Amino acid sequence: MSLFNTELFIARRIFFARGTSGKFSESIVSFAVFGIAFGLFVMILSVAIVTGFKKEVRNKVIGFGSHIQLVNFDSNLSYETRPVSKNQPWLNEIRNLKGIKRIQSFATKPGIIKTDDEIHGIVLKGVGPDFDWTFFKENLVEGTVFSVSDSARCDDVLISKQVASLLNLKVGDPLFTYFLNEETTTQKMRKFKICGIFRTSLEEFDRLFVLADISHIRKLNDWTSDQISGFEISIEDFGQLGPITQSIRRLTIRYSRDDETVLRPVAITSKYPQIFDWLNLLDMNVWIILGLIILVAGFNMVSGLLILMLERTTMIGILKAVGTGNRSIRKIFIYISTFLILKGMFWGNIAGITFCIIQSKFGIFKLDPGSYYLDTVPVNLKISYLLMLNAGTIAITLLMLLVPSWYVTRIDPEKAIRFD
Fold first, then answer.
1. Which pLDDT tens digit goes with each residue over 74-118?
2. Would you say residue 266 lies in a domain?
3. Which of 59, 151, 220, 255 is least surrounded by Cβ atoms within 10 Å, i.e. has the fewest?
4. How far apart are CA 271 and CA 82, in angstroms?
5. Residue 79 phi, psi dihedral angles, 5° rounding
6. Are residues 244 and 164 in the same domain?
7. Beta strand pairing status for 174-180 and 156-160?
8. C-alpha distances in angstroms, 86 versus 224, 261, 379?
């Protein structure tokens, strides 16, 4: 059996030949290659931008509430929570679960900020010594974060840029807040000092949360030193949110007693369903875009292949006359089409990857934070996405070319040799 691939040899000679095609056919083929390149460029941008947008918004929401919150089973959806003990028998087992990254305690208390001219409703979020400040340090625009210890209460707080602008506050200013308890109508006032200002562009959260020492919330609610609103749990892989939530639920139920408080895990997707449902809708848009672009690029290649075969009708007739089968001739044009597709994909990848790198480094294209929660167009370029897009493009396009390649079988050698 010969190792020489005759069909590939002929296809390469035709593809790399210069000046042997008519201007019309060259224009059609060039347009088909451009269609593949531009289509892949748009697909790379679509996937990179949508996945980047979802990732950035999701990480910001998680930054305010972690992946999973463990709260009192009797607590409702408000920020006025029922206390639980921070000393739980199952804590070590949860820490040892696969995929768990961090567990930290928290407490929340609704209140009002009052200045000489304005009032503003907020949620005071109390954090302890175990709090992870990474997210807020990344989004800090002025000042610094505060430190929390078990020995002394800290009066510093962290507010958002939106609240600071609304109330005309700055770092170092006093912050007067007022709170009410469910059991009493007595108003309690606390004076804090602003030590830092953050900005996440997630306005729904920026205008709501103020971070403070958890001891203040214990004092406001008359809780004991071991009582908190619940636990925040961070995980390593967002894709495992469902299974890990179920594992935590089973674990807490196994330890529950009739005379003890039962805790329930609340996934971040359940706490803020409107945001995550909206993000999930973006996936449908991407699939529609990818499908339409591949179809358009595929039809461009179909027209290009038909033009190539019409242009090479005489050659097809000669090959048939010397005994070459239809299958071999079809393979020649499939090889030529593959070269054209690969050429278009090469330039499409170059353009798409270059755009993503430039945008990620320089943030040239901006967004309105009030509408999109982000300042710049985000990109999330992964090798796996590129490989899937390239493999899908070449596979679907070649499948679409199998049908027009049957045109070869309809060519009569006698007529084709005389074809002009």
1. 766 678 888 999 988 889 999 999 999 999 999 999 999 999 888
2. no
3. 151
4. 17
5. -90, 0
6. yes
7. unpaired
8. 11, 12, 40
Query: Tokens 């593809």 map to which residue?
Result: 15
Q: What is the largest CA-CA distance in the chain?
A: 103
In single-letter form, the type of residue at position 384 comes to: S
Q: How many separate domains does the chain show?
A: 2
Average pLDDT over residues 260-264: 80
Radius of gyration of the chain (CA): 32
Based on the fold, state whether residues 230 and 84 are members of the same structural domain.
yes
The domain boundary residue, chosen from 200, 233, 261: 261
Inside any domain, residue 69: no
Strand 68-72 to strand 230-235: parallel, antiparallel, or no bridges (unpaired)? antiparallel
Select from 213, 237, 261 the last residue of a domain: 261
Torsion of CA 387, 393, 399, 404, to 10 degrees: -150
**Residue 234: inside a domain, yes or no?**
yes
Nearest Cα neighbor of 306 from 395, 400, 393, 407 is: 407
- Per the structure block, which two tokens stand in for 418? 């005389």
| DSSP letters for 98-166 | TTEEEEEEEEEEEEEEE-SS-EEEEEEEEE-TT---HHHHHTEEEE------SSS---EEEEEHHHHHH
| Burial class of residue 74 in the structure, from the number of CB atoms within 10 Å of its CB (0-12 exposed, 13-18 middle, 19+ buried) | exposed
86: phi then psi, degrees, rounded to nearest 5: -80, -5
The mean predicted confidence, pLDDT, of the chain is: 86
Whole-number Å distance between alpha carbons of 47 and 295: 17
Residue at 114 is within a domain: yes
Distance CA(320)–CA(408), nearest Å, equals: 10
Tens digit of each residue's pLDDT (9 = 90 or more) over 117-128: 889 999 999 999
CB within 8 Å of 292: residues ≥ 6 apart: none
Instruction: Give the residue numbers spanning the domain of 133.
Output: 74-261
User: Among 166, 165, 160, which residue's Cα sits nearest to residue 60?
Assistant: 160
d(Cα 370, Cα 181) in Å, to the nearest integer?
A: 33
What is the spatial distance between Cα 48 and Cα 404, in angstroms, rounded to a whole number?
33
- Given pLDDT bands bounded at 50, 70 and 90, which one contains residue 161? very high
In this structure, the answer to whether residues 99 and 234 fall within a common structural domain is: yes
pTM of the model: 0.82
C-alpha distances out from residue 233 to 15, 132, 294, 329, Å: 58, 11, 41, 62
Alpha helix positions (H), 256-382: 268-271, 273-311, 313-321, 326-362, 369-372
Residues 303 and 355 in one domain: yes
CB 87 within 8 A of CB 226: yes
